[in-house]
Amino acid sequence: MPRLGDTALALLEAGADYRIVDCEGNDFVLLVGARKARYPAEQETLARVRGFLANEGCDVEAVGRARGHLSIDPKTDDGGFDGRKSENLLARREKVGNRSIPAHLRPWLRPKGRPHERVRWKAEDFFTDPKVIELCKAIEAEDLVEIDELVQSGVDVNARGRANMTPLLWAFPMGEKAFRRLLEHGADPNVKLTERIYPFYAGDSVTFLAAGPSPSHACIFHDVSMDNYLKLVLEHGGDANLQNGHGRTPLFAAVTAFEDSERRIRLLLEAGADIDHQDLYGDTPAMFAERHRRYDSLLVLLEANANLRLVNKSGIDVVFMVGRRLNWSTGRAENETPVVNWLKQRGYDLEAARQACESYLPLRGVPIDQRPWLNSGKEVTTEPPGC
Question: What are the structural domain ranges in the chain?
Answer without folding.
Answer: 6-109, 307-387
